[in-house]
Amino acid sequence: KYGIGTFGKEAYDFVDFLEETKQSYWQLLPTNPTGYGDSPYQSFSAFALNPYFIDLEKLILEGLLAAEDCKKLDHPYRRGIDYKELYDEKFTILKVAYKNGYEARKEEVEKFVRTSSWVKDYSLFMVIKNHFGGGCWLEWPEEYRLRDSKTLLKFKKENLEEIEFYTFIQYLAFKQYGELRKYAHSKNINIIGDIPIYVAIDSADVWANPTQFQLDSER
User: What is the pTM of this model?
Assistant: First the structure.
C-alpha cells in the first residue's frame, strides 16, 4: 500500500520476524532522501530522512490525514516502486498533514529544530531548488548560489510556509523512525546504518558549508 515500504506496520512485523528467527541486527541502506536516479547514494542531504518512508497509516491514526487524502496512492504495487508517482503524489499528501498538524505540533517541531542543526539549511535548500525547477545549486543565480544574506532573508519571508513544510516532514520522519528504532531495541535488534560514501555536490551540505569542500571562488 501507498507505493513504498515505510516506517509503519510492515517494518514492525519485520522486527518481529528478526526476533523470532533469533537475529540480532538489521542492516539498512542509506535512509537519506533519494536524489537523481532515485539513489540514496546521491542525496540532497547526508542528514535528512527520506520523506517517502513516512507512514501514512500512522498519520491517519493520529488525525493528521483522512483515508480519503491518501486515495491516489492507496493501491497495491507489485512490480517495483514507481518513484515518479511517489514524487508526484506523496508530497501533496504530506502537505495536507502539514496543514492539519503544524500549528498543533509547533512546539515539538521547534524542539526538533533546536536539536537538528542541519534542518534549517536543508529546508531552505529544498525550497530554493524547487523554485528553480529542481536544478543543481551550481546553476542557480549567483546571489542564491553564494548565499547572499539579503537575498536569502527575502526568500525566507516570501516562502515561509513551504520552508516550514520541509521542516515538518523531517520532524515526522524522525519521530516515526525513532519509534521504530526504540521498538527494535526492545526486541534486542540493533540497527546497522549506512551512509553515502561521498557527500553529493548537489546537496544542502555542500551549498551551506562551501569552505568544507574543494570548491572554487565561483561556488
Answer: 0.94
